[in-house]
């Protein structure tokens, strides 16, 4: 076995060398000259099906890279024509050599006279070479220049094999050298996108066991360099496909295991269980096989119909009926051998227990109604059915169908035996669309910007894409920072080593000079000379936009740091901008400001925003709306816009409705303007008539007004009195009636000032007609789809979407001729490599060039990477490496943000050690919430009078603390399902702490409970639901979720459960620790097994800080939360501090404390008590018949007391003390998410 492992590792080593251009350039010639592939194929190990399986798979990968379609010298990718030309030239030379050597032998004549295409396949070559005897074959090899120039070389190769004769070895070498190899893209196009059972449970391709690194796998690797874009896409295609296959395997195993398939006495299949995600098939049959398209050998389409019986719960039935077009499902055949009643054993292999035989993927085309027609999904109402039977029309994979059809007996067995239909969570079921997108990219000529090409492949100068290294034509010498700077001092702070020279902007009506005693006011334009360290600062004035407040600019109020300003500067310039931002360093605010500056500096350009999650996209969108960006230019694609905390709808159809509504509003304003000019208001009938009205009436009157006030005679007669000259503006202004709702439109003090006001009014009017011109297309187009597409490709300037949506909709966007100039990516370090690359190619090239000008990537590679569930793909293939991280490893210039504004300084110390010189922003040291309780910065013990004075968390002695949690009833962590870790003691302790905080007055939306495992998350949710969810005094926390899911979010107070008590688990990854420690702003409380995590070397720096405080939860229950912060606490006796040393004590303490708090509130503030218990009481009251209504309300209150559990006695309070039986998983295991961590 050691020799086998060595052989596999050696082939892996050869693959790594061949897949890198610098080493391949020289090494590929050696591989070819020594015939390594052929010799390895003929080895004894390769002939053994079991021991040599992995070896042969690795040889296939090595063969792929040896024959890769690339010029070994120049490194350029070869086209199909070039590959064919090289192949024909090689075979022609072979025929010439044979003709020269054996032209007099008739039996060799067909070989050198035949056409190249008739002899370039393996079977033909074997046939012809077999007719040549060994002596002549050796002579031929000597003359072909294929590394067999003499007998010594031939003997050296043949001596490796004792079971083969010399002739067979030479024939195999010649055939392998001259046969035509399949085109890589054609092989990819013939590959099924849905995995079958042969791939899903192939351990060499999709390993399920924990990868320890002691053996290699037949998988591609994502290193820092790639041969070509084709190689780059192909590796990502295979890895994404296999990772999706791993997730599909887990879903299938989970769903089928819950169905409990058993074999009946008559050899039929029965199902003893049920599953939310799987249902038995009543019947399946193929209804249509479309003819093959020209040039293809597979059917154009294969349709089938599935009939299932939805005799299940209504909620599950609704889920099945909600299957939509393009949803992916799986048809499964099981033939179990187990008898009825046999339980499923999760520790045993899956396939033997359920008898799984076949798996085929399918795509839902729609559900059929009673008449057999597809149900229209655009109609909200569902059709009525008389029975529970439902029929779904599906599309099968034509490539897989062709493969199955090659064996008729197996074909009938497969498609006549499906008995289970499995569906998946729609959020995790988009793999087919992404794979199709990658395959489409490989079938088209990918054009990336020239300044990005080499960096994407990992070659060249890493600084080449930085704005300072681009050509001078692509750099802006003068940058308009708009509202980036709050004042002149802000500029000096951001450029401390530069000399600031204030110049006058000749284009602006206001000016400043270096000799002026007053400091210039923003906005500023800067000309930065990095060599001389000089900045030419030009203040300018925003033109007056009109007399109304809502038209005034919305100014930025964030005082950006010098590093943030450098990132903004880089983002405005052409090229690649990389920003590394620690937690709370203002990455989102920075991104929004870059977008704001690009919007104002380049109004003709379009910016694409891409994020990993809807959460980040919505957070960015909400901040964009607060800046000076016209909302008609904003568009949000994909699902998730419903979570935006605004009443405005920024989806496609939401923006269409906004445009149509806005059009009517503007036309009403046009009608008002017409009436003010004593004209008929029918000019506001359409956008077109409004345009003519503007040209013939509005613009003409404005031009006449300008002519009158600029008339020389008029000016000369009034220059003696500035006030009289200002009166001319008011007297001649033609639109007084329209602006009659503005008080004191003109001030009458200055001619220049009033003229600017008049120009502002005209700009306001002009904007109305400009918007109507933009909206005119919506009058012409009638369908909602046409309008939304026009909005996407023409109207919107800032388009936001997730990386997943970009991958799913690329084909649609390209067909719509979607174009953009800039890309900004947030959470870049969390996005898969391929999902980062796809947004670069959402548009067709323009004259062979990509029009992309800027690529801004913002992220933090020291936090969690993209989620890869399979450990083998994560570690061996390095699939968790994002493109952002790869660029950092390559040395691409990055801007490191060095200040954080989220956590108080003491909490920041828990993770700041991972970052270089991470400081606090100014508000951390100024805002009361960071300085005073809750909490403050220090405490000290006055032992001389046995009292404590501190500025700390309300109700807590410490602002952060590690709480040691021991076993409860001799049980620590448990694992009811594989990798589904839970810890009941920690769950109860965490929930009790949450209840304690709520009783002190902490708002529930300020508290989040985090854990590191899905199993614990579900357990805590169960405990919350049972203990306090329905209690009006407590309720639920803001969120109960995992650390991984909460990345990118924050809350004031975090309660963290680490779960494990036997091994550290995946918290050993420091990146996960950084995320866990950096989510809290004001308070962090970690519940764990102290000795276990403290002893972990990787976590030492953080836990050494946590261990400074006692490991028992220390409480001060006499304090109460308030939104107003007091400067200090009263002096407390040490006896007033309560230490909680275990979970049971905490639960008992909270139970007693709850009764005290409810009694206190009832006695001190009865109205508050009633409002908490009966929040809807005031809504039930009616003005008339007040006394009678009050009696009714009292009766209702008594009824509510029974419902809510709030009685007159403390014993009736809705708080249940802990028992061993009342906490755990729900009976419905289908609702549980399986934890995929294998550590």
From TrEMBL:
Q: Where is each RNA helicase aquarius beta-barrel domain found?
A: 260-424
Q: Which SUPFAM superfamilies match?
A: P-loop containing nucleoside triphosphate hydrolases (SSF52540)
Please tell me one Gene Ontology term that the record gives under cellular component: catalytic step 2 spliceosome
Molecular function, one GO term: mRNA binding
Question: Acidic residues composition bias: which ranges?
Answer: 1182-1200, 1221-1239
Q: Where is the DNA2/NAM7 helicase helicase domain?
A: 561-869
Single GO biological process annotation from the record: mRNA splicing, via spliceosome
**Region of interest (Disordered), ranges:** 506-526, 1169-1239
DNA2/NAM7 helicase-like C-terminal domain segment(s): 879-1090
Q: Which residues form the RNA helicase aquarius N-terminal domain?
A: 2-181
Which parts of the sequence belong to the RNA helicase aquarius insertion domain? 475-533
Name of the protein described by the UniProt record: Intron-binding protein aquarius-like protein
Species annotation? Euroglyphus maynei
Q: What is the lineage of its organism?
A: Eukaryota, Metazoa, Ecdysozoa, Arthropoda, Chelicerata
């Amino acid at each position: 076995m050691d020799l086998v492992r060595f052989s596999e590792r050696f082939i892996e080593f050869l693959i790594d060398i061949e897949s890198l251009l610098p080493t391949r350039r020289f090494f590929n010639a050696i591989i070819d000259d020594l015939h390594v592939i052929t010799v390895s194929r003929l080895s004894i190990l390769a002939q053994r099906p079991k021991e040599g399986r992995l070896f042969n798979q690795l040889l296939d990968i090595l063969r792929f890279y040896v024959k890769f379609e690339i010029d070994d010298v120049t490194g350029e990718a070869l086209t199909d024509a070039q590959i064919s030309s090289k192949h024909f030239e090689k075979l022609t030379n072979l025929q010439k050599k044979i003709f020269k050597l054996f032209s007099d032998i008739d039996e060799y004549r067909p070989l050198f006279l035949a056409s190249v295409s008739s002899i370039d396949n393996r079977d033909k070559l074997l046939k012809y070479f077999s007719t040549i005897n060994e002596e002549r074959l050796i002579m031929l090899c000597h003359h072909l220049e294929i590394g067999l120039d003499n007998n010594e070389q031939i003997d050296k190769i043949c001596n490796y094999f004792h079971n083969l004769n010399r002739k067979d070895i030479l024939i195999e070498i010649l055939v392998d050298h001259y046969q035509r190899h399949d085109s890589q893209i054609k092989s990819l196009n013939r590959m099924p996108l849905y995995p079958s059972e042969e791939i899903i449970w192939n351990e060499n391709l999709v390993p399920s066991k924990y990868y320890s690194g002691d053996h290699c796998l037949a998988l591609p690797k994502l290193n820092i360099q790639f041969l070509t874009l084709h190689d780059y896409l192909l590796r990502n295609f295979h890895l994404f496909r296999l990772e999706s296959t791993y997730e599909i395997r887990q879903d299938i195993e989970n769903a089928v295991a819950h169905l409990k398939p058993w074999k009946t006495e008559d050899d039929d299949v029965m199902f003893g269980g049920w599953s939310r995600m799987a249902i038995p098939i009543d019947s399946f049959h193929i209804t249509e096989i479309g003819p093959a398209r020209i040039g293809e050998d597979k059917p154009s389409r294969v349709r089938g119909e599935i009939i299932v019986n939805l005799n299940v719960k209504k909620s599950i039935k609704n889920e099945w009926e909600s299957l939509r077009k393009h949803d992916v499902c799986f048809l499964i055949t099981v033939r179990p051998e187990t008898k009825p009643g046999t339980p499923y054993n999760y520790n045993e292999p899956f396939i033997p227990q359920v008898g799984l035989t076949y798996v085929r993927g399918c795509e839902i085309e729609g559900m059929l109604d009673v008449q057999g027609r597809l149900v229209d999904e655009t109609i909200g109402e569902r059709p009525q059915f008389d029975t529970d039977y439902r029929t779904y029309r599906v599309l099968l994979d034509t490539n897989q169908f062709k493969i199955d059809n090659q064996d008729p007996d197996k074909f009938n067995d497969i498609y006549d035996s499906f008995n289970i239909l499995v569906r998946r969570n729609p959020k995790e079921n988009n793999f087919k669309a992404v794979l199709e997108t990658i395959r489409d990219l490989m079938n088209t000529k990918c054009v990336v910007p020239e300044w990005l090409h080499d960096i994407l492949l990992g070659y060249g100068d890493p600084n080449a894409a930085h704005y300072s290294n681009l050509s001078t034509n692509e750099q802006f010498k003068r940058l308009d920072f708009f509202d980036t700077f709050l004042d002149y001092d802000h500029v000096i702070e951001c450029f401390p080593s530069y000399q600031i020279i204030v110049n006058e902007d000749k284009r602006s009506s206001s000016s400043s000079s270096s000799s002026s005693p007053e400091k210039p006011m923003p906005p500023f334009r800067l000309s930065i000379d990095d060599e001389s360290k000089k900045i030419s600062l030009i203040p300018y004035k925003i033109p007056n936009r009109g007399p109304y407040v809502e038209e005034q600019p919305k100014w930025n109020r964030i005082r950006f740091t010098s590093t943030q300003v450098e990132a903004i500067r880089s983002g405005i310039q052409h090229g690649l901008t990389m920003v590394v931002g620690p937690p709370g360093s203002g990455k989102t605010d920075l991104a929004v400001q870059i977008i704001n500056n690009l919007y104002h500096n380049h109004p003709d350009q379009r910016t694409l925003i891409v994020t990993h999650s809807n959460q980040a996209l919505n957070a960015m969108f909400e901040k964009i709306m607060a800046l000076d960006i016209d909302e008609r230019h904003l568009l949000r694609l994909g699902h998730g816009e419903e979570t935006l905390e605004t009443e405005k709808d920024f989806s496609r159809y939401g923006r269409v409705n906004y445009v149509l509504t806005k059009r009517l509003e503007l036309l009403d304003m046009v009608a008002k303007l017409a009436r003010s000019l004593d004209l008929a208001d029918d000019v506001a009938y359409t956008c077109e008539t409004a345009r003519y009205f503007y040209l013939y009436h509005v613009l003409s009157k404005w031009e006449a007004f300008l002519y009158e006030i600029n008339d020389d005679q008029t000016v000369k007669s009034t220059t003696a009195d500035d006030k009289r000259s200002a009166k001319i503006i008011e007297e001649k202004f033609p639109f007084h009636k329209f602006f009659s709702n503005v008080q004191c439109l003109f001030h009458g003090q200055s001619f220049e000032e009033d003229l600017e006001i008049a120009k502002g009014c005209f700009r306001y009017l002009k904007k109305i007609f400009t918007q109507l011109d933009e909206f005119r297309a919506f009058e012409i187009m009638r369908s909602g789809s046409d309008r939304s597409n026009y909005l996407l490709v023409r109207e919107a300037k800032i388009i936001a979407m997730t990386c997943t949506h970009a991958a799913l909709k690329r084909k649609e966007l390209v067909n719509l001729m979607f174009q953009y100039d800039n890309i900004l990516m947030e959470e870049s370090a969390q996005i898969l490599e391929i999902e980062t690359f796809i947004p670069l190619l959402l548009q067709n090239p323009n004259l062979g060039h990509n029009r992309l000008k800027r690529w801004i990537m913002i992220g933090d590679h020291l936090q969690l990477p993209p989620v890869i569930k399979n450990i083998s793909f994560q570690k061996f293939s390095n699939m968790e490496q994002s493109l952002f991280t790869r660029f950092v490893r390559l040395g691409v210039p990055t801007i490191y943000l060095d200040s954080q504004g989220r956590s108080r300084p003491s909490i920041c110390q828990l993770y700041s050690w991972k970052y270089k010189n991470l400081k606090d922003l100014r508000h951390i040291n100024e805002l009361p919430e960071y300085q005073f309780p809750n909490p403050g910065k220090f405490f000290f013990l006055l032992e001389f009078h046995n009292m404590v004075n501190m500025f700390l968390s309300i109700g807590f002695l410490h602002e952060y603390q590690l709480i040691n949690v021991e076993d409860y009833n001799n049980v620590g962590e448990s694992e009811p399902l594989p990798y589904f870790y839970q810890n009941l003691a920690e769950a109860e302790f965490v929930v009790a702490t949450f209840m304690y905080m709520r009783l002190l007055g902490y708002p529930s939306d300020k508290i989040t409970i985090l854990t590191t495992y899905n199993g614990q998350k579900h357990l805590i949710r169960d405990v919350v639901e049972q203990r306090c969810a329905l209690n009006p005094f407590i309720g639920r926390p803001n969120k109960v979720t995992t650390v991984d899911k909460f990345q990118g979010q924050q809350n004031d107070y975090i309660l963290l459960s680490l779960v494990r008590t036997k091994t550290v688990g995946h918290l050993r990854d420091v990146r996960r620790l950084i995320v866990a420690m950096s989510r809290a702003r004001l308070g962090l409380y970690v519940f764990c097994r102290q000795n276990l995590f403290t002893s972990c070397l990787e976590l030492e720096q953080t836990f050494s800080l946590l261990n400074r405080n006692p490991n028992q939860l220390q409480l001060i229950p006499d304090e109460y939360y308030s939104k107003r912060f007091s400067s200090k606490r009263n002096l407390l006796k040490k006896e007033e501090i309560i230490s909680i040393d275990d979970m049971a004590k905490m639960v008992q303490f909270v139970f007693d404390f709850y009764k005290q708090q409810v009694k206190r509130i009832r006695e001190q503030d009865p109205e508050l008590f009633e409002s908490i218990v009966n929040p809807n009481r005031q809504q039930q009251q009616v003005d008339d018949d007040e006394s009678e209504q009050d009696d009714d309300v009292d009766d209702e209150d008594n009824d509510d007391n029974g419902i809510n559990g709030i009685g007159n006695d403390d014993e009736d309070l809705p708080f249940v003390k802990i028992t061993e039986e009342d906490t755990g998983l729900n009976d419905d295991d289908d609702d549980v998410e399986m934890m995929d961590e294998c550590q």
